[in-house]
Write a structure and sequence with these properties.
The protein has one helix at 62-69, and strands spanning 2-10, 24-30, 36-46, 55-60, 78-83. The chain has 95 residues and is mainly β. The protein has a single domain (2-10, 22-79), classed as EutN/Ccml (OB fold (Dihydrolipoamide Acetyltransferase, E2P), Beta Barrel), CATH 2.40.50. The chain has a 5-stranded mixed beta barrel with strand order 1-2-3-5-4. It is elongated and about 50 Å long. The two termini are 29 Å apart.
Length: 95
């Protein structure tokens, strides 16, 4: 799974029939503090109604994504499965 931020919506007029009526979003991987890591971008199918600017959790493994969809032949690798409210990273040695 990957923590990411939705950067934009992908629009395509010609696509596999599986994607008809489904929202695809461009997601940039983020570090735990919320800053973009700047090296990894994912195109993910939205399952939760995420929008641009939101922090999300992305399942980025094809078999898991297809199991979530309930379709073993679905042409998908990445799904947005959660909108993240907060990331709490404890500070080492902190109280």
């Amino acid at each position: 799974m990957i923590l990411g931020r939705v950067l934009g919506t992908v629009v395509s007029t010609v696509q596999h029939p599986f994607y008809a009526g489904r929202k695809q979003l461009l997601v940039g991987a983020v570090l735990p503090d919320g800053t973009l890591d700047g090296t990894r971008y994912i195109l993910a199918l939205d399952m939760v109604g995420a929008g641009v600017g939101e922090t999300v959790l992305v399942e980025d493994e094809g078999n898991s994504a297809r199991q979530i969809l309930g379709d073993p032949k679905a042409p998908v690798r990445s799904l947005i499965v959660a909108i993240v409210d907060e990331v709490d990273v404890p500070v080492p040695g902190g109280d």
